[in-house]
Amino acid sequence: MVTGASRFFGGNVVARLAQDQNIERILAVDTMTPGRDLQRRMGRAEFIRADIRNPLIRKVIGGNEVDTVVHASMVAHPPAGGGRAVMKDLNVLGAMQLLAVCQKSPSVRRVVVRSTSAVYGCSAKDPAKFTEEMSARTPPSGWFARDMIEIEGFVRGLGRRRPDIATAILRLAPIVGPRLAGRGVQYLRSPVAPTVFGRDARLQLLHEEDAIAAMAHAARQAPGGTYNIAGDGALALSQAIRRAGRIELPIPWLAFRTAGRALMGPIMRDFTSEQLDYFHFGCGLDTTRMRTELGFVPRWTTVQAFDDFIGGAASRPVIDPAWIDAAEHKLLGLLGAGTGAHS
Question: Taking a C-beta distance cutoff of 8 angstroms, is the pair 267, 187 a contact?
């Protein structure tokens, strides 16, 4: 059973699992009916309109003898027409009710929960790479990160009370790609990209296809535990801006949070606190456990995922990145020639 099936992420996890003939049945659950295209790609999956906050979800799990639950229906922003209270109700109370039902259902053997690297927070005290045992050096200020920390606590509680259930938490790096670009990278579509003066955040990203594949992989064979999921390598924010053919505008941190948001209009105005902090400090993830214990290897590196996002954004560069590369090579050649003349 996969929750959040009407949205891009949950629906595509369902579609991926539906292609596996070793899976007998797939139940796609959400409060809204998926779009026609998404339903078509879900294939043989059975859609059930249900709310995980309603105790009736017990009938869906128990009546169908569900053995694996994939919880992918978290929301990162307050829904339209709703505030923080609605967001917390959907995220925290929904997960609490769902996990309580899983605990009481004898058929459930695996629970996979989508989480986020935002739980590590972003600060100047951060290590180069976070391992799964580490926690935030500075508690995250964003609502989504705080919700996910609370939900992760519920999952670990389920694992203690039902050790026969494999409870897996997947902490996904910021997701980018041509179909679903994380809002945190949307601002690179603007001609001018404000950055924090004196900082050059290191970004570690995850391609949308790898995010979907990781959840589907975990649904089939994940052992219990917490796993960082991210593409190999990292990309400095200044490099990302250059690769996107944009113009960097370094401004003080206070102005980045205020004037910078006004400069970018609606793109940055919708940024959450954790997204603003991410562009200030970045966040690196150790993915050793993802490879050795989960057995998952992303197809896209961070740089490849970013380039695919830029290509899919269909945005015309203000400055051709190839021109910048050529200018850099010329400058390095001149410096090299000058050095050789003096030696």
Answer: yes
Decide: 233 and 302 in contact? Cβ < 8 Å: yes
For residue 91, give both structure tokens: 């995220």
Q: Which three-class secondary structure state does DSSP give residue 111?
A: strand
**Lookup: tokens for 318:** 């203000």
* Amino acid in position 285: L
Separation CA 123–CA 207 (nearest Å): 24
Residue 275's closest CA among 171, 143, 162?
143
**Whether the Cβ atoms of residue 217 and residue 168 lie closer than 8 Å to each other:** no
Number of Cβ atoms within 10 Å of the Cβ of 65: 11
* 142 pLDDT above the threshold of 80: yes
In terms of phi and psi (left: phi > 0; alpha: psi -120 to 50; beta: otherwise), the region of 265 is left
Exposure of 30 in the CB half-sphere (CA atoms within 13 A): 23
Question: Is 140 within 8 Å of 130 (Cβ atoms)?
Answer: no
Q: What are the angstrom distances between the C-alpha of 161 and each of 46, 57, 167, 275?
A: 30, 20, 11, 34
For residue 295 the two structure tokens come to 């057995």
Between CA 167 and CA 117 the distance in angstroms is: 18
Name the band, by pLDDT with cuts 50, 70 and 90, for residue 238: very high
Per-residue pLDDT tens over the stretch 82-130: 788 999 999 999 999 999 999 999 999 999 999 999 999 988 889 999 9
Q: In what order do the strands lie in the sheet with 110-116?
A: 46-49, 27-30, 2-3, 68-71, 110-116, 166-172, 225-229
Residue 26 DSSP one-character state: -
Helix or strand holding residue 250 (H, E): strand 247-251
- Which 3 state secondary structure label does DSSP give 135? coil
The span from the CA of 297 to the CA of 294, in Å, is: 9
Amino acid at 311: G
pLDDT tens digits, residue range 191-213?
A: 888 889 999 999 999 999 999 99
Report residue 78 as tokens: 């307050």
What count of Cα atoms within 13 Å lies in the side-chain half-sphere of residue 52? 28
The pLDDT value recorded for residue 90 is 93
